[in-house]
Amino acid sequence: MNDSDVFKILLIGDSAVGKTSLLLRFTDPNNFQETSVNMTSVDYKNKNITIDGRTFNLQIWDTAGQERFRTITSSFYRGAHGVLVCYDVTDQLTYNNVGLWMQEIQRYGVLGVSRVLVGNKCDLEDRKLVNASIAQEYADILGIPFIETSATTGVNVEEAFMAMADEIYRNHIGGSKPSVVKPVCGSPPRTKKNIC
Ligand SMILES: Nc1nc2c(ncn2[C@@H]2O[C@H](COP(=O)(O)OP(=O)(O)OP(=O)(O)O)[C@@H](O)[C@H]2O)c(=O)[nH]1
User: What's 170's DSSP letter?
Assistant: First the structure.
C-alpha cells in the first residue's frame, strides 16, 4: 500500500460527545461495549475500506481527552486529510462550539482538509436539542456533508466514516464518487455534489 492510499482522519469536538465510541464502533463493531469506552485510551485505529474497487487504509485518530484542556496541538492536525467534527445532539453547547472547532481546523489543518459534520447520540430522541435542519443548513453553507449518528446503536456510523473517505478520495485523489449520506437517523439518502 502506498502512502497515498493511507487517509489520516481526526475525530474532534467537545469532551464526551462520543468520539472514542464512534471510533471503536466503526473499527471494531463486533466487540463494541459502551462500558469499556471510558477506560480505553485510544491514539488511533486503522480500518481498510474500498472505494471504486481500490483499497484505502483509514488511520483514524482520537484526541484521547486532550480537548478537555484545549491542548490539542498543531502536531495532531499535521498531515490530516480529513476531520470529523462531532457534537452531541442532546447538548446544545457542544453544537455551539462546532464553529470554534472549525476555526481550529483552519488554524492548524492543511489547506483543503476535508470535513464532515457529525451529530452523535441520535438514539436519544427524547433528549434531542439540536435540530438536524439547523446543522444541515450550517453544513450546506460550509459545503460539507452532515450526518447524525449513534455510536450506541451503530446507526450511520459506517456511513459517517465512508462519507469522510469519499470526501478525501474526491479532494485528494481526484476521484469522482459523490458522497451519498443519509444525514438524519431514518431519513432518505441525500447526494452531495457541490463541495468546494
Ligand atoms: N446514548 C448514547 N450515548 C453515547 C453515544 N456515544 C457515546 N455515548 C456515551 O457518551 C459518553 C462519552 O463517550 P466517549 O466516546 O467517551 O466521548 P468522547 O468524545 O471520546 O469523550 P472524551 O474522551 O472526553 O473526549 C460515554 O458514556 C458513552 O457511552 C451514543 O451514540 N448514544
Answer: I
CATH architecture of residue range(s) 3-191:
3-Layer(aba) Sandwich (3.40)
5 in a labelled binding site? no
Q: What is the pLDDT of residues 105-158, one digit of tens each?
A: 988 877 789 999 999 999 999 999 999 999 999 999 999 999 999 999 999 999
pLDDT 10s digits, 83-96: 999 999 999 999 99
From 11, 20, 21, 38, the mutation candidate for ligand 1 (largest count of ligand atoms within 8 A of CB) is 21
Q: Do 148 and 156 contact (CB within 8 A), yes or no?
A: yes
> Which residue's CA is the closest to the ligand 1 atom numbered 9?
18
pTM of the model: 0.88
DSSP alpha helix (H) spans, the chain: 19-27, 34-37, 74-77, 92-96, 98-108, 132-142, 157-168
For residue range 145-182, what is the model confidence (pLDDT) as tens digits? 999 999 999 999 999 999 999 999 988 777 665 555 55
Ligand 1 binding pocket (C-beta < 6 A) is 15-21, 34, 37-38, 63, 65, 67-68, 120-121, 123-124, 150-152
User: Which residue matches cell numbers 473499527?
Assistant: 27
